[in-house]
Amino acid sequence: MTWTRKILRVNLTAGTCQAEPLNLEWARQYLGQRGLATKYLVEETDPKVLPLAEGNKLIFATGPLTGTSASTGGRYAVVTKGPLTGAIACSNSGGYFGAEMKFAGYDMIIFEGRSEKPVYLLLENDEARLLDAAHLWGRTCWETEELIKHAHQDPQLRVASIGRAGENGVLFAGIVNDLHRAAGRSGVGAVMGSKNLKAVAIRGTRTDAYAPADPEGFFKAVAAAKAVLAGNGVTGQGLPAYGTQVLMNVINEVGALPTRNHKEIQFEGAHAISGEAMKQPRDSDGKPNLVTNNACFGCTIACGRISKMDKGHFAVKDKPQYHGASGGVEYEAAWALGAACGVSDLEALTYANFLCNEDGFDPITLGTTIGAAMELYELGLIKKEEVGFGLEWGSAEALVKLAEMTAQGVGFGKVIGLGSRVLCTSYGRPDLSMSVKGQEFPAYDGRGLQGMALEYATSNRGACHVRGYMVSPEVLGIPLKMDPGATEGKAPMLKAFQDLTAVVDSAGICLFTTFAWGGPDIQSMIQPALGGDWSLERLMLLGERVWNLERAYNLAAGLTGKDDTLPPRLLNEPAKTGPMKGKVAELGKMLPEYYQVRGWTPDGVPTPETVARLGL
């Protein structure tokens, strides 16, 4: 089986690291990564614990396919109670860190308590040590990774760390590994910072730690699944060529690109910040923004971007440390830092994204919070003297300055670092926070894509596009084409997508594979990997169990069905342009049906029958 059957429990208060057996009964019920870590969190913490309190736990988890030859088998997740939302947080990352954790022989690392002083965990196969990190505190993620590798004379160490954002309590701080891959949403980095845990460094060489139950059957299934990815137009062509940025012009044309804090749903500058623009030679130096694509461990898609900025651009002209190549903007970041703020300067977006990678914070929440601040400024509620400069729509200079201030934790950057819900509420306009459960929207407007409106409202971790991705049927026609402006059929389709996504996340592979793979493709690999009975029906039931467990945790934490809603702007202000002109998000038509197909009460609570059926 491809579980290592071992977890590492790190008590930061006591300074101890102890290995213990994996609960295999839970593993069979929840598979791994997202599902299994959620089960541990639910069983071991009070759902009413304050996210930044010592009693909250931080769990790094892999899935059974992590570290295997399955395409995209490099994923890991960080699960905790999120400070941005007060709900369950599960943030997923790629790169090479997850596979290295598996190579060291662990399915999961549970951090509990709080260290009195900054520390980092060094994990080398069976040896785990907490080491002093005083010299790393105040350093960026990039500096931290370099210093740890140098200290241990091992360039092959894989490091996941927080930057200054996590140290300073930015509520949307993330955890960065491999320089530009991140467990980026919901504030998991702030929880790590609250525990005085600066980094986790892993070197694993135990290839004997796990193996497929049926090696021949597994390798055959993996080869067939990779062929499906290669032959698909999205995973074999679009994503390798343009990354997720392939969507910028597409979503803009559909009329679902939120612009200027969702005041509009189309952006006149979309092409200038698109995937196509990243490949065009710049006027200044004749070189494109994009250097190459990039792949995570075991990935045959390679959707990642590596970019290099124009050295003469105002953002980096006097900052030679940013003249090299690093992680380029992907669609969500380009939208949030760009269209959401009315900014069409691709180089400025690239720089702000570099800062998010370097200091460990979520570009989606950063950009949308700045967009909210720009609207508050337009309304006269934020004054120029409060910030130190103007916050006019489209100002690349303001975007860059606020990104720097947020990274450094100074001035108005401290306010931005609390997210748009706190920002807008403090100025008496909570309605201008484009968020659900306190987490900001990604790059799709719910008036243009009705299924996404329902997905945002019902997501367990707040507004999220990777907990179902209704863009697939509504825009791409995968697995079937659905009218983006219609509400019919969206509830059952979303439930199926959400349950399948829970399986994908729990397995340890990337959601992007589902542009090409269906449930049978995933099942074909899990079955020989684990052995026993892993039918598609069992897996989908498992995904439904994970979703309902997360829901139960949120309800126990104090959230209710009233939190399954959208900002008034989406519900009441019709779209102004494009194919969806005149439309609002018709959540009221879809939510009751969604509760029904989920087996929940009209108030959004799982019924006793549902709880019993899922074995919760």
Protein architecture, described:
With 616 residues, the chain is α+β, with helices and mostly antiparallel strands. It has 3 domains: 6-203, Aldehyde ferredoxin oxidoreductase, N-terminal domain (Aldehyde Ferredoxin Oxidoreductase,  A, domain 1, 4-Layer Sandwich), CATH 3.60.9.10; 259-433, Aldehyde Ferredoxin Oxidoreductase Protein, subunit A, domain 2 (Orthogonal Bundle); 440-614, Aldehyde Ferredoxin Oxidoreductase Protein, subunit A, domain 3 (Orthogonal Bundle), CATH 1.10.599. Helices cover 39% and strands 13% of the residues. It has 25 helices and 17 strands. A 6-stranded mixed beta sheet has the order 2-1-6-3-4-5, with helices on both faces. It has a 6-stranded mixed beta sheet with strand order 8-7-12-9-10-11. The two termini are 25 Å apart.
